[in-house]
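Run log // design_07
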């Protein structure tokens, strides 16, 4: 049984614009994958939030998405990006994992009001403090950080 998709064409265009901001070489992955790939460099997942980055106490990350990042991170570093109303931020899978282990983040059943046709509006979510996310400055700085991360692994 397949899940109903709720992404509009506008959502996909917004996601693509964010992906190109991160890296002009990024490519969109399939429906059941993380959102994108910077070839031979990193996987990216992109989310948007309508509020400013410092407003919520926690940002909710699906445990299913966390596991997809975990699998991807075995091949290349995986990152979650959030486009807030005021800035673009990101966290690596490894930093997200550390926050779960250290109990800086916690897991609870949460989500949005259920939508007709959806099977996963309420699910296990990791509650991540937005303060754990780094501010995206530019593509060159981000790619250099990944390069340093890989060379230190």
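design_07 sequence
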């Amino acid at each position: 049984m397949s899940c109903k998709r709720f992404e509009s064409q506008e959502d996909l265009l917004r996601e693509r614009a964010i992906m190109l901001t991160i890296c002009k070489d990024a490519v969109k992955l399939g429906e059941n994958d993380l959102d994108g790939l910077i070839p031979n460099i990193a996987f990216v997942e992109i989310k948007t939030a309508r509020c400013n980055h410092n407003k919520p106490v926690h940002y909710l990350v699906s445990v299913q998405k966390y596991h997809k990042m975990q699998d991807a991170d075995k091949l290349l570093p995986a990152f979650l990006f959030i486009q807030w109303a005021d800035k673009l931020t990101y966290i690596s899978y490894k930093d997200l994992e550390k926050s779960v282990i250290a109990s800086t983040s916690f897991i609870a059943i949460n989500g949005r009001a259920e939508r007709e046709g959806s099977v996963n509006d309420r699910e296990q979510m990791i509650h991540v403090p937005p303060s754990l996310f780094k501010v995206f400055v530019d593509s060159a700085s981000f790619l250099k950080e990944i390069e340093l991360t890989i060379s230190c692994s």
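Residues 9-152 form a domain with the Trna Endonuclease; Chain: A, domain 1 fold (CATH 3.40.1350.10).
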